[in-house]
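Reply to dn_fold:

You asked what the input looked like. This is it:
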Amino acid sequence: MRLWCPLGLRLNRILWLKARMDFIKPAASSPAPGREVDSYCGSCKLELAHVIVAMDGSRIAKVQCNTCRKTHSHRGQQATNNTTTTAKTKPSPTRKTKSNLTHSEYDRLIGGRDISRATPYKITTCFTEKHVIDHPKFGLGVVIRILGDDKVEVGFPSGVKVLVHNRP
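and this is what came back:
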């Protein structure tokens, strides 16, 4: 048996549910430089929206806070309960990633370039192919290719990294 419900209450519930659905964001397929991700900002002391600046393989390395505009390491989601701890696991040594460069490949990339004129890496700087970059964490690298308007693939001694560039 169906109970009678005033039309006004039913419409209010439908409008409330629709408003709740507008706040749900579709999940990104995979993290990539230039995309937004939620991360804990130590300066703001909150978990806020950040833009991915640099990645180390499939791991997010650096993010820029959309609120205070500071760049820092990605801290992911902070645990709400400090009593729970998770053990960090290393990837298996047999797993091969495409981001690894051999020493001879890196030497071939950097060979013949004037490393004394390497440009210090900044998010706001626009880079071109074969540009030599001096990154504070990864060291000297060479731009291998341009990925869209705001991403570059750079070869470093530790491997190939995707970095953000040309940002206001």
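The two ends are 62 Å apart (CA to CA).
Hope that clears it up.
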